[in-house]
């Protein structure tokens, strides 16, 4: 088979690494890819939003399956374009990717189908939003309706902060049109857990759980980022939580989308909050999480191509999804100053230490090749992932492995997976 992966981050590198393990695949392309992906796939200089060029490329190279990694092209309708051209593609169509593309849509869907989530209201008028905040309870959460690189969520402790947040999202357009509509949501407390799943339109198969660390600095301080590290499985995702979610969240979401005429095929990422009143849905994503993919996919036993094809063909019920009985931790190495401002172009040294190192991975996010060097080219540069027999061992292995890589302005959190000690 020939496979095309669309995207350029650590998630796409994790997908490419899993695809490369399949005996069914003899050629992988990635558009646009990055320096690390270039070691397992041929990178193609086509942007993820250049749909027509991607379709033409897939036809020209007789690609058997295209896998869409990123949210923007999914929400923009890339899957529809590929299907119209008669090409096989893994990911939700535009009318299903709205599950991630519009937080207002997903909140209304949960309300309509009694899927547990926080109380909320949607606003497309800043004046109405501010009026609502006058009588709200604090803290409170503001969410940009559209895609905002995982950063469009503001937790506001006071009315003043919330008013400033409305201004930032709706008037100053910090995230562009993503803030034309906002969701104002009650603040929930509890443990956050990420659960990824494969979906074929009717059947859903749950992957192993994970937990992300969004804030830039230790102790969950600092600004929201795309994710500074993650671990899998989450010790807080118990059998009891699993049973509840299977009954009231997972299948209910797939059935709700089907009932709305929005059949969902691909990956649904469930962001859950384990509250005192039981698990509730914080958010949906319509693709693999990043960096969650970097700890979940290395633990998957199945040939990922079999699973992708079953989702496309509607035969997921025939797949026995299996994961290794171990753990994985990913620590993101970022450029100091991320997510605000940072320098790029520094040489990365030590990558050769990971060649043929069993149970260790370096997933490239913001890198590029310059001659025979690999240099930093983004805020999140690399995801260093290590396995272990349990979470403590995996965490120790991952942090030990981060010492093998050096670049100027290297920055990381030192407490990824610290919650494990409290479990």
UniProtKB/TrEMBL annotation:
Task: Report the pathway entry.
Answer: Purine metabolism; IMP biosynthesis via de novo pathway; N(1)-(5-phospho-D-ribosyl)glycinamide from 5-phospho-alpha-D-ribose 1-diphosphate: step 2/2
Needed cofactors, names only, are: Mn(2+); Mg(2+)
Q: Which GO terms describe its biological process?
A: 'de novo' IMP biosynthetic process; purine nucleobase biosynthetic process
**So what does this thing catalyse?**
5-phospho-beta-D-ribosylamine + glycine + ATP = N(1)-(5-phospho-beta-D-ribosyl)glycinamide + ADP + phosphate + H(+)
Keywords carried by this UniProt record: ATP-binding, Ligase, Manganese, Metal-binding, Nucleotide-binding, Purine biosynthesis
User: Which EC number(s) are documented for this chain?
Assistant: 6.3.4.13
The highest taxon in the source lineage is Bacteria
Give the matching InterPro entries. ATP-grasp, ATP_grasp_subdomain_1, PreATP-grasp_dom_sf, PRibGlycinamid_synth_ATP-grasp, PRibGlycinamide_synth, PRibGlycinamide_synth_C-dom, PRibGlycinamide_synth_C_sf, PRibGlycinamide_synth_CS
This one is known as: Phosphoribosylamine--glycine ligase
């Amino acid at each position: 088979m020939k496979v095309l992966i669309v995207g350029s981050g650590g998630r796409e590198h994790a997908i490419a690494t899993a695809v490369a393990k399949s005996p069914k695949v003899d050629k992988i392309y990635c558009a646009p890819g990055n320096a690390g992906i270039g070691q397992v796939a041929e990178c193609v200089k086509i942007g993820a939003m250049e749909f027509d060029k991607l379709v033409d490329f897939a036809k020209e190279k007789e690609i058997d399956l295209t896998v869409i990694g990123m949210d923007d092209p999914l929400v923009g309708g890339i899957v529809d374009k590929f299907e119209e051209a008669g090409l096989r593609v893994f990911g939700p169509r535009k009318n299903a990717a709205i599950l991630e593309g519009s937080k207002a849509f997903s909140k209304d869907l949960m309300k309509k189908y009694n899927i547990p989530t926080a109380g909320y209201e949607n606003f497309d008028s800043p004046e109405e939003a501010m009026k609502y905040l006058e009588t709200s309870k604090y803290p409170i959460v503001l969410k940009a309706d559209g895609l905002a690189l995982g950063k469009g969520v503001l937790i506001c402790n006071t009315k003043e902060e919330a008013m400033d947040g409305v201004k930032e999202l709706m008037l100053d357009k910090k995230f562009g049109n993503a803030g034309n509509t906002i969701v104002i949501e009650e603040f929930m407390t509890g443990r956050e857990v990420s659960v990824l799943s494969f979906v074929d339109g009717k059947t859903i198969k749950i992957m192993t759980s994970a937990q992300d660390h969004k804030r830039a600095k230790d102790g969950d301080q600092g600004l929201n980022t795309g994710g500074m590290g993650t671990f899998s499985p989450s010790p807080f995702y118990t059998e009891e939580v699993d049973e509840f979610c299977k009954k009231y969240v997972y299948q209910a979401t797939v059935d709700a989308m089907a009932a709305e005429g929005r059949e969902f095929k691909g990956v649904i990422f469930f962001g859950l909050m384990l509250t005192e009143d039981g698990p509730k849905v914080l958010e949906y994503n319509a693709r693999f999480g990043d960096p969650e993919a970097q700890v979940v996919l290395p633990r998957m036993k199945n040939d990922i191509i079999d699973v992708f094809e079953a989702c496309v063909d509607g035969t997921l019920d025939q797949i026995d999804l299996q994961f290794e009985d171990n753990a994985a931790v990913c620590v993101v190495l970022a450029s100091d100053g991320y997510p605000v401002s940072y320098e790029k172009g520094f040489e990365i040294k030590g990558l050769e230490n990971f060649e043929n190192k069993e149970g260790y991975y370096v997933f490239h996010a913001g890198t590029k090749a310059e001659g025979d060097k690999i240099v930093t080219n983004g805020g999140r540069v690399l995801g260093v992932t290590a396995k272990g027999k349990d979470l403590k061992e995996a965490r120790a292995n991952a942090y030990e492995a981060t010492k093998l890589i050096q670049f100027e302005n290297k920055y990381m959190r030192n407490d990824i997976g610290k919650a494990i000690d409290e479990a």
